[in-house]
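TL;DR need structure tokens for one chain.
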Amino acid sequence: MRIWDIPVSCLCRRHLLGEHRELHAVWTILTRNKRGYRRHPETLRWEGKLKALYRRHLELVEEMAGRGYRHRSPLDPELATGSGIQDIMIDSIEEQHRILCRKGCDCRVSGSSQS
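>> reply
TL;DR here they are.
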């Protein structure tokens, strides 16, 4: 489970769509008080930050539309409460770049913070 902290424009198709799917999972866990993955670090870092998660979703949707995907799974904006800023990271931006570089996909990142 991963919601990246890098710009969505850098993500390849697989990671863009995968993050969108996982963001919906985190959203559902937090807004419907589901138990699966409730204690996962990625879920925990979004507690109290549904407004920031909602904003990330909007960024993903905009990028998806720009790439020709149709989006049919909106989030309820009334549930977007709490902080609009995500200031907790599981991995630094530099490490996220390195992780994506090692995957050998089409993400537009480099192994350092220079991207």
